[in-house]
Amino acid sequence: MNRFKEKWGITSNFQLAIILLVFSITGSVAVLVAKPVLDLVGLDKEALSPWVFWPIRIFIIFPIYQVLIVLIGAIFGQFKFFWAFEKKMLVRLGFKQFKDRE
User: Fold this and answer.
1) pTM for the full model?
2) In 1-102, which ranges are E strands?
3) Rounded CA gap, 73 and 80, in Å?
């Protein structure tokens, strides 16, 4: 656990608990928000093949999650951690403009 805390710059067990709480809340909220978004777009589980429905659902949940992780992290006072986490993810996805300048 100390190696994880050191790698991510986490200073206390309390901060680690908050970060894990934010991850769990964000995942749950993203899944809850996906249903109304799918309804709004008109995608129905019964009308589509599971091979089509689930990839579309995941594709829709992913950007929702990315926004929510930063927002919920900020609410819990961990904006700096989650913004760094998000920038790292965006760079890995090919958005090089988010890469930190050294």
Assistant:
1) 0.81
2) none
3) 8
